[in-house]
Amino acid sequence: MGNSALKAHLETAQKTGVFQLTGKGLTEFPEDLQKLTSNLRTIDLSNNKIELLPPLIGKFSFLKSLILNNNKLTALPEELCKLKKLETLHLNGNHLRQLPAAFGQLAALKTLSLSGNQLRTVPTQLSGLRHLDVVDLSKNQIQNVPDTVGELQAIELNLNQNQISQISVQISHCPRLKVLRLEENCLELSMLPQSILSDSQISLLAVEGNLFEIKKLRELDGYDKYMERFTATKKKFA
């Protein structure tokens, strides 16, 4: 892509606050974007070949949405955590194994999408994020869900298509968790905490494709309580 094309994109972005350049084979984050640190609200560089996010990402202090799906990122810089206004972060289809230590400082974050990476656990940093609504960790290599999940503020947690065989009972303490997706994992029925059914806020539990028959779920203590929540929620959205 020539400089003139990039210049045109930059000029548009200066007016709109949106810089979108997808599927152009970019191997690095365009440094020229630095000129727009105070203008940009949205950056979308999906479907490129970017391997590194430079530290200068921390300068985009008004950024609300950062979308980097389907690139080649293996790590994220700590500077990313300075984006105090960031509400949406989409990093699906990269090679991330962990999140920066200071990730919990992204205080405004509402939607986090990390589907199709190489995470092995639910990142503990997520527990500090007070405004999280949706967390997508599907298609990773997560094997267990740790105790820290009990502090997660999300409304929806997607853990489909991992290798989960253990879940902390603390998940039933999540104050806002309504939707829990655990399809296509390695769960035995005995490893599913019954308190998810009997004593949680969860009103949609998706567990198809594990190591038990769905009808067995109905035999567990607390299933009727879960169904009350499920039905009440369905009525609300009907």
UniProtKB/TrEMBL annotation:
SUPFAM superfamilies named among the record's database cross-references: L domain-like
Name of a matching Pfam family: LRR_8
Classification via PROSITE patterns: LRR
Gene Ontology cellular component annotations, sorted alphabetically: cytoplasm
Gene3D superfamilies to which the protein is assigned, alphabetical: Ribonuclease Inhibitor (3.80.10.10)
Lineage top rank: taxon: Eukaryota
Keywords: Leucine-rich repeat, Repeat
Record's protein name: Leucine-rich repeat-containing protein 57
Source organism of the structure: Campylorhamphus procurvoides
Gene designation: Lrrc57
